[in-house]
Automatic annotation (TrEMBL):
Residues 61-188 form the NlpC/P60 domain. This is NlpC/P60 domain-containing protein. InterPro entries: Murein_DD/LD_carboxypeptidase, NLP_P60_dom, Papain-like_cys_pep_sf. Keywords: Hydrolase, Protease, Signal, Thiol protease. Belongs to the peptidase C40 family.
Length: 188
């Protein structure tokens, strides 16, 4: 039991939006994106996060819109490093949980998420794509991720978690995000 608690504790504090040092002796394991064909039609109660309920999402919409609708339920949730619930959320936790709820498994850390799917030019970005940023970190690596919620008329809006405002919607036209932007990727 102590070992299980220790593993859960380590997992919680090693997965974040910020980059962390990797152990020299750790084995590298490949993570996969797993998409089950019926994932969007399922409304399993074991995927609920407290009062956030994936079964409340309109399943007649596309996978991307379903994931976006679920992510939007977290808007206004405070920032919590390593968080994945309505009690606190970090950027990669928001994306990870929004996809995981519909049986699409992504890595937990933003820089690892940036290795999945394929790169998409900004003029081809669609709802559900992921935007990656380098936000003034010492290692100059990807350390922030956002989920595209709208992409029309050259205006791209994305939902993400910030340390100051928690889970919010921002625009890629905002100077800070425009200058920190690295790439967009499609995993769906």
């Amino acid at each position: 039991m102590k070992r299980l608690i220790f593993i859960a504790f380590i997992t919680l504090f090693t997965g974040s939006c910020k980059s962390s040092k990797q152990s020299k002796h750790s084995k590298k394991t490949a993570s996969k994106i797993i998409i089950e064909p019926s994932a969007i039609d399922q409304t399993s109660t074991n995927n609920k996060t407290d009062s956030l309920d994936p079964s409340k999402i309109n399943t007649a919409t596309s996978k991307a819109e379903t994931i976006i609708s679920y992510a939007k339920q977290f808007e206004g949730v405070r920032y919590k490093w390593g968080g994945t619930t309505e009690n606190g959320m970090d950027c990669s936790g928001l994306v990870f949980e929004s996809f995981r709820t519909f049986n699409i498994l992504l890595p937990r850390i933003s820089r690892d998420m940036a290795k999945k799917g394929h790169k998409v030019p900004l003029n081809k970005v669609k709802n559900g794509d992921l935007l990656f940023f380098k936000t003034q970190n010492r290692r100059n690596t990807i350390n922030h991720v956002g989920l595209v919620i709208t992409s029309t008329n050259k205006i791209i809006k994305f939902i993400h978690a910030t340390t100051r405002k928690g889970v919010i919607v921002s625009s890629l036209t905002e100077n800070y995000w425009k200058t920190s932007f690295v790439e967009a990727r499609r995993v769906l």
